[in-house]
Design goal:
heterodimer; A: 124 residues; mainly alpha; 7 helices; 0% strand; globular; B: 301 residues; alpha+beta; 19% helix
Chain lengths: 124, 301
């Protein structure tokens, strides 16, 4: 039952993100959709993940920065932002973002994976 | 009618016709090039028509000649048609000088930052992309790059604690610090490695690795660098570019969604490393979920 609910949430979120947000914005209206999706913390994170999956890391980082502008407390957005910075080989930048996070808010598994991606970077 | 009177009348008529062309809507319509994708705090726009800066909201259309000013604790991210983004933060000023975009073929951007911190992120790749950001005393040429810069007093504050810049005389109004953020040689996703050229006083400094920086201390001085910006300097610059975190660790998705989201992201990152074989300028269609194998129904991803 719980799994079903989660799946429903996931499907809804993905459906919303896919339907609303274009993957190749080249009009102002499409840019509007990209701006709007980032007003929602979950939707913005999911959209950034889609961009990253396509290899659009710079755009994904920009999306997460829009999310963080509106949701500066979002630990999820900040962690993923840090990881994507590491993904583009900006490890010092990723480390600086990880330093803003509190280690205790993450499971050992997640934190160790983040550390592995941002190898030799810090965090508290 | 004398010959001179005839030509005088003809000149007036031609002038009127020329004037009509100049003031027709088509001739004066601004070239809209992007939007304010994120607006936090007090952000104001002015241009040749709007001489008294007006406060803007998210989705504000932006055009050639627009100048954006931010006040304290404010931030705006400009999203351009090629999906490049330009962000300025508190107490900054930026003007869009030009932006020409021919999808899949070329992109040319020119902007000026006269004050404050800024971040540029390249958008869609084209075969002929040019972007430059000017400060009052130098020019930054950008190629496929994530790049941060800061102009003015805050740049001097960061520079004065950089060992490489010890003893350099700086101008608090115009000093310009630029640091390349990426992508570096180890980037994933098949991204083009970022490069930036910083030019002043007819001298150019090339930035070719993340964290490499150049500093133009004052008018008429050549850029100093490249040098590796210290971690403290980078953190101070990021502090200027990133919103503050209040009560970090509370609320939001943390308890509900974060572990799964992060796990999904990390798994995806580790397993796929992004799509680096996509030579097609058109992205996958929105409905093609098979592109995202880590996001199957029944999982939070």
């Amino acid at each position: 039952m719980q799994l079903g609910k989660i799946g429903l949430v996931c499907s809804f979120l993905f459906g919303a993100a896919f339907l609303v947000v274009p993957t190749s914005a080249e009009t102002l209206e499409e840019l509007d959709a990209m701006a709007e999706v980032a007003t929602d913390e979950e939707g913005g994170i999911l959209f950034a993940q889609q961009q990253a999956q396509r290899g659009e890391f710079l755009e994904a980082i920009a999306t997460l920065e829009r999310v963080l502008a509106l949701h500066p407390k979002s630990q999820a957005a900040r962690l993923i932002h840090a990881i994507y910075l590491c993904q583009i080989d900006d490890k010092p930048g990723g480390a600086a973002e990880l330093d803003k996070l509190k280690r205790k808010n993450f499971s050992d598994e997640i934190w160790s994976q983040a550390m592995m991606i941002c190898a030799s970077t810090g965090g508290q | 009618m004398s010959v001179s009177a005839f030509f005088a009348r003809k000149s007036v008529a031609l002038g009127l016709i020329a004037g009509l062309f100049c003031f027709t809507p088509a001739a004066s319509a601004p070239v809209q090039v992007g939007i304010a994708a994120s607006v936090t705090g007090d952000v104001r726009l002015s241009n040749a028509t709007i001489t008294k800066p007006k406060k803007i909201q998210r989705r504000q259309r932006l055009a050639w000649g627009d100048t954006l000013r931010t006040k304290k604790n404010s931030k705006v991210q400009i999203l351009l048609l090629d999906r490049s983004s330009l962000t300025i933060t508190s107490n900054a000023r930026l003007t869009i000088n030009r932006f020409v975009y021919d999808p899949g073929k070329s992109r040319s951007l020119g902007a000026t930052v006269t004050k404050g911190a800024f971040r540029f992120m390249s958008g869609r790749r084209t075969s002929n992309s040019k972007a430059s950001v000017d400060s009052k005393i130098g020019t930054i040429g950008i190629r496929g790059t994530a790049l941060d810069g800061i102009v003015g007093e805050r740049a001097v504050e960061i520079a004065k604690d950089e060992p490489f810049l010890d003893g350099v005389k700086s101008d608090k109004e115009t000093a310009t610090l630029v640091v390349l953020r990426g992508p570096g040689a180890a980037t994933q996703g098949g991204l083009q490695v970022g490069l930036a050229d910083v030019t002043a006083a007819e001298v150019t400094v090339n930035l070719e690795e993340p964290s490499m920086a150049a500093y133009i201390p004052r008018p008429g001085a050549p850029p100093i660098g490249p040098f590796r910006l210290s971690s403290v300097g980078l953190q101070r610059l990021q502090y200027r570019l990133a919103p503050r975190i209040h009560n970090a660790g509370s609320g939001g998705l943390l308890g509900k969604l974060l572990p799964a989201v992060a796990a999904g992201v990390l798994a995806g990152v580790l397993l796929t490393g992004g799509d680096d074989d996509d030579n097609n300028p058109n992205n996958p269609t929105a409905d093609d979920r098979s592109q995202y194998p880590n996001c199957s129904p029944g999982t939070v991803c």
